[in-house]
Amino acid sequence: MPKKMLRRAGFTEIPGRGSHKNWIHPLYPGKLTVSGKDGNDAKRYQEKDVQKAIDQVEANTDNNET
Asked: What's 17's domain CATH number?
């Protein structure tokens, strides 16, 4: 589910080590790392991290539009 949320928010997936995937976005500083293979349930802390990243991108989008 977090991967789908990140894609919808405009993040781009780049390879990481093993089952880790890194996600980048032009309005998000740095990268977000999500572990686990596709189809695995995400850990609660990962879901929170993903939501925070999406919220930050949305806030940055709002700031860029004004």
From this structure: 3.30.920.30
Q: Is the pTM of this model over 0.85?
A: no
Q: 57 is in which domain, residue-wise?
A: 2-65
Condensed to tens digits (0 to 9), the pLDDT of residues 12-63 reads: 999 888 889 999 999 999 999 998 876 677 788 989 999 999 999 999 887 7
User: 19: buried, middle or exposed (CB in 10 Å: 19+, 13-18, 0-12)?
Assistant: exposed
Total of domains in the chain: 1
**Which residues, 6+ apart, have CB-to-CB distance to 23 below 8 Å?**
6, 11, 12, 13, 14, 31, 32, 33, 34, 53
